[in-house]
Design brief:
- The complex is a heterodimer of chains A (114) and B (113).
- Chain A contains no helices and 12 strands.
- Chain A is an all-beta fold and 114 residues long.
- In chain A, strand 7 and strand 8 form a beta hairpin.
- Chain A starts with a strand and ends with a strand.
- By secondary structure, chain B is mainly β.
- In chain B, the strands form 2 sheets. In chain B, strands 2, 4, 5, 6, 9, 10 and 11 form a 7-stranded mixed beta sheet that branches. Chain B has a 4-stranded antiparallel beta sheet with strand order 1-3-8-7, with no helix packed on it.
- In chain B, strand 5 and strand 6 form a beta hairpin.
- Classes of the chains: A mainly beta (114), B mainly beta (113).
- Chains A and B meet through strand 5, strand 6 and strand 11 of A and strand 5, strand 9 and strand 10 of B.
């Protein structure tokens, strides 16, 4: 069964600081990888996804993530955060085989101070 | 194309009552996921359903919880004889059959008093 580990539980940054949130997964096959964001009081929205091809994927709002297969990692990055990026960020993995569920990490809360 | 619709948004039940949470997937989506979200615990996978079929229920508690996704109508997550520990936000997500992202509903916040 697949699992996802997010290293940071709570990250606090000042505006314009750079962001990197760690995500490692465990799965014995080909995976699809996702980052979702949940703004306060709202539902989850997709930030970006990786299925195949270029391991550096770009998402909405200036976010990007890099898939490193050898490290089973899919870290999320943003060069310069804004106050409006304050939210909870979830990494998720889904095995490529039919019938595998979408599994989430425990999430990382990002607080950005202006 | 309406998004994933969950209702009710808020549900209050007394201990021992039944809770029924509904999820209408996006049009054309035949797969539904249910998750429970508790503070500090993230999104815990509960069950993965296809129309008229449970694909993976490894995250469902063995007792009191059940889920269905009939041929017609919404997916239902049913919790019998609720206890205080069932209080949480329950999110539903839907996706098409092909590997792609899942789209989330607004969630149902269940409070057991």
């Amino acid at each position: 069964a697949q699992s996802v580990s997010q290293h940071n539980h709570h990250v606090i940054l000042s505006e314009a600081a750079s962001l990197e949130l760690g995500c490692n997964y465990s799965y014995g096959g080909t995976v699809n990888l996702f980052w979702y964001v949940q703004y306060p009081g709202q539902h989850l929205q997709l930030l970006l996804k990786y299925f195949s091809g270029d391991p550096l994927v770009k998402g909405i709002k200036g976010f990007e993530a890099e898939f490193i297969k050898s490290k089973f990692s899919f870290n999320l990055r943003k060069p310069s955060v804004q106050w409006s990026d304050t939210a909870e960020y979830f990494c998720a993995v889904k095995g490529n085989q039919a019938g595998t569920a979408l599994i989430f990490g425990k999430g990382t809360t990002l607080s950005v101070s202006s | 194309n309406a998004g994933v619709m969950q209702n009710p948004r808020h549900l209050v039940r007394r201990r021992g009552q039944e809770a029924r949470l509904r999820c209408s997937p996006m049009k054309g989506h035949s797969h539904v996921y249910w998750y429970r979200q508790l503070p500090e615990e993230g999104l815990k996978f509960m069950v993965y359903l296809q129309k008229e079929n449970i694909i993976d229920e490894s995250g469902m508690p063995k007792e009191r919880f059940s889920a269905e996704f009939p041929k017609e109508g919404p997916s239902i997550l049913r919790i019998q004889q609720v206890v205080r520990g069932d209080s949480a936000a329950y999110f539903c997500a839907s996706s098409p059959p092909d590997p792609t992202e899942a789209f989330f509903g607004q969630g149902t916040r269940l409070t057991v008093v």
